[in-house]
Specification:
Length: 188
């Protein structure tokens, strides 16, 4: 088995001001950083510069594409807006295709309400499949996002959320290892 560390970036999938999902993304990023054998990077799509005059691979950002190419898996931290996902995230994700093929993705949904963005995740899953990503079966659900963190960005119920994200990351790491092995050793 390949001993090279897995590369699993965490992508914050909204550009809105005052976004409660930013604290969630930072929390998840810190948990990924603690995983042995995993390297990560924090990607805020607000900092990416994608033009609005075209779409798809015509707007490819070289650094983002290289990050996706290098990735063994991805964590998307995505808020639920009106039962859906942010349009800007879709715009960014659509800029790559081959870079995603046979790579694992885990989705952390963030909502103001009590369902942890379950409806958004249901809407995003077919998009992941179409992009060639392989979704894990465990989601990270963060409900009541405005009240989950204190004024310094520390999560209130750390023990519960660390356990949940540990299970989520365990599945993502396993799937990332299996898919990397497949990409490197099994031809289609």
């Amino acid at each position: 088995m390949n001993t090279r560390p897995l590369f699993i970036p965490v992508i914050l999938g909204t550009v809105r001001q005052g976004r409660a999902s930013e604290n969630v993304a930072k929390f998840v990023f810190e948990q990924v950083k603690k995983r042995e054998g995993v390297e990560t990077e924090f990607v805020d799509i607000r900092e990416l510069k994608f033009p609005g005059h075209d779409a798809g691979e015509q707007i490819k950002d070289t650094s983002f594409s290289q990050l996706c190419e290098r990735a063994d898996g991805l964590v998307l931290v995505v808020p639920e807006y009106n039962h859906g996902y942010p349009g800007m995230l879709k715009h960014v994700l659509d800029s790559n295709l081959k870079e995603y093929i046979h790579k694992a993705v885990g989705i952390c949904g963030v909502s103001a309400g009590g369902f942890g963005a379950t409806r958004m995740i249901e809407n995003l899953l077919p998009v992941m499949r179409e992009l060639g990503l392989v979704t894990i079966f465990w989601d990270g659900n963060f409900s009541g996002a405005q009240k989950l963190f204190d004024e310094n960005g520390a999560i209130h119920d750390e023990e519960t959320y660390v356990k949940r994200i540990d299970k989520f990351l365990g599945e993502l790491v396993w799937m990332s290892k299996v898919l990397r092995y497949g990409r490197e050793n099994i031809s289609l």
